[in-house]
Amino acid sequence: MRIAILAVAATALALAACSQQTEDKAATTADAAGETVASAADDTAANADAAADNTAAATNQAAENVDAAVQTPAETPAH
Predict the structure, then answer these.
(1) Distance CA 34, CA 19 (A)
(2) 3-state secondary structure the chain
(3) Which of 3, 14, 37, 46 is 20 to 30 A from residue 60's alpha carbon, by CA?
(4) Burial 32-65 (b: 16+ CB within 10 A, else e)
């Protein structure tokens, strides 16, 4: 009977150790996932800023092109 009780106690301790290991690994994985999400958010923000800058530059260029077209008389074909 003592052997059975010791075996149960040893099994319980082994499971507790595995559980702690699993908990530690889960925490490490969660931390890494959090860092990945934060990095992705930073990248997305930087890309959005770059897209906004590029859109503003393209809009300015289009406005300049329209302004130049308005100031340049159209050629009329010779009759």
Answers:
(1) 22
(2) CHHHHHHHHHHHHHHHHHHHHHHHHHHHHHHHHHHHHHHHHHHHHHHHHHHHHHHHHHHHHHHHHHHHHHHCCCCCCCC
(3) 46
(4) eeeeeeeeeeeeeeeeeeeeeeeeeeeeeeeeee
Amino acid at site 10: A
Residue found under tokens 């897209």: 51
pTM: 0.53
How many whole angstroms separate alpha carbon 22 and alpha carbon 62?
A: 59
At 11, list the tokens.
């099994």
Q: Encode pLDDT of 17-71 as tens digits.
A: 767 777 788 889 989 998 998 999 999 999 999 999 999 999 999 999 998 888 7
